[in-house]
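Worked example 4.2. Below are the chains of a multi-component assembly; read each line carefully before continuing.
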Amino acid sequence: MVSQPRDIVGEYKYGFRDPENYVFKSDKGLTREIVESISRFKNEPEWMREIRLKAFEVFHAKPMPTWGVDLSAIDFQNIHYFVRATDRQGRSWDEVPEEIKRTFDRLGIPEAERKFLAGVSAQYESEVVYHNIRKDLEAQGVLFCDMDTAVREYPDIVKEYFGTVVPMTDNKFAALNTAVWSGGSFIYVPPGVTVEIPLQAYFRINTENMGQFERTLIIVDEGANVHYVEGCTAPIYSTDSLHAAVVEIIVKKGGRCRYTTIQNWSTNVYNLVTKRAVAYDDAVMEWVDGNIGSKVTMKYPAIYLMGPGARGDVISIAVASKGMIQDAGAKIYHFAPDTSSRITSKSISRDSGNTTYRGHILVEPQAERAKVKVECDALIFDDYSESHTIPYMDIKNQNVAIEHEATVSKVSEEQLFYLMSRGLSEEQALTMIVMGFIEPFAKELPMEYAVELNRLIEMEMEGSVG
Amino acid sequence: MTTGAPLVVRNLHVSIDDKEILKGLDLEVKPGEIHAIMGPNGAGKTTLGFALMGHPRYEVTEGTVMLGDQNVLEMEVSDRAKAGLFLAFQYPFEISGVTVANFLRQAVNAVRGEEISVWDFQEMLSEKMKLLEMDESFAGRYLNEGFSGGEKKRNEMLQMALLEPRFAILDETDSGLDIDALKVVAKAVNSLRGPDFGAIVITHYHRILDHIKPDVVHVLMDGRIVKTGGPELALEIEKKGYDWIKAELGIVDEAAEAGVK
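Applying the procedure described above to all two chains together yields the following structure tokens:
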């Protein structure tokens, strides 16, 4: 084992330059030493280092998932597991692909924010706004910071909840994340506190947010209420090929949490995310989840309804274009009586894209009077695209109400003709049909996100006309 | 384009799936004129509307359609709308999740080629909705989703009133409507009536022509205009049906076309 930072210089391509201003990138591949050094760089307490090392063992022991999308093309030894934020900053704007720059342009995203999103800059103009928001939050006792800071400043809370919702043994990628995690958000909302504005990852000035293995932990205490918005509809440019995040959420009695995200990763990214929440008595958990980018996404936001009266909602869209596989859905487990769940999934396949809704509803025997509603709708553009629906349901109680609806529709020539006969171009007509289709999702978004999503869909539809 | 240009259809042949429906149709509508086209089922009435608007399944195999000096047949569907053509659909399509107001605003913007302010649009919309005796809540409903037959037709008329076309084709807009709804349709057409507006009213019945006075009445049979006259022709058809025209012209193969609209 290595005990001095100096000793590991040999292990790394760049080593240290300056203790205050290092640029650091681990060699490709994952070793125990790399895991240890990540922990050391972050000045982590011993307990977190031990968690990482244990997870590293689990990662090696766990097989690759044998279901869902074929992931055999992922080469774990050909990935940089830790890139110090300052290195990202050092990356040049010129290296960002033209296609992504153009999208920023047309989304009207300000210069500073573009660089942030592209991972070449950490800064964001809203520094003042951020500070004001933070002051208000602090006055209410709300904790909101990046996960690395939380480990150092709020170790007791992190220790109590970290890995309790998504244990490292959950799956290979959860183990990987636990071993090498970096960045992500930490939120604690004290009992009875309602955070009025959506908390956004942007407001946190932190380069490590852009990490490939971020770890997010949100604790909503009794009767508290928070809406967290992560990421953005703009494409997140990544040179790395694997994004494996873990999000853990605990919503205590009577609390309410909504987590909104729209991922638009560049199309070279495997996006394999484990998101899970537990909701106690009368608590409400809502996942609003958009998947527009990536090469392969496997993501099934989960909610465990632990206490009587708890409610879980998952509303999601997936758009798969050429060369993309969106394997997304939801998992809701009813462990208590009078719990209810609703899943609304909308998927769009075009230009040989492939979408799958994969859902799992479990109702345990004790979950008397549970209510379940699952609705999945697929829209297919052409004969080359695919859409699949795989809704598993394990219902172990007779006294429940289950509804399941699934529809598959194709954009019809007649609809297009009708809209075009009113002056709309074919692209405008397609955009209108798509926006109408995902309207139940779009209306759940904060205003600025809905606007951005709209523009993004417009862009997606461009070039869809042959 | 020159204002006051007529819509001129010459020797139009149209096929669907290689079956010829229109077999040399001639028609000339000048701005300011209302033409009624009547004819039995399967005569090709709906085909005429779809072909003029450019439905991709309706293949024009011969003939010309000119709007002034513009060759309509070479234009994209949306460009035909921008040039001032409008088709009121007999069976309008549903677009889930898109509100009537949102759809109409985008349509108005597209046809005008410039953004109308939200405020101006709202004003224009409520004015037209009032004219057509439509409840304001209508604007917030999803386009044609769950609309009754009458509501769909009213919605078509609302679109026409807002888009102010140069030539409107009403494809059996009157069918299935009660007398009050019929009057509303007539009101929409009559509100646009003037030197810059022409219309082709396709119908089975004389009834609507009591409210929209046509200048010219045509009989469409077996893919051609076989008889043209004044308003009195519509009355005659109402009374006597089409058989006398068939007999007069010696048309016998009509039945073969039945079932094709």
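Take a moment to check your reading of the output against the notes. Chain A touches chain B through 23 residues (CB under 8 Å). The mean pLDDT of chain A is 83.
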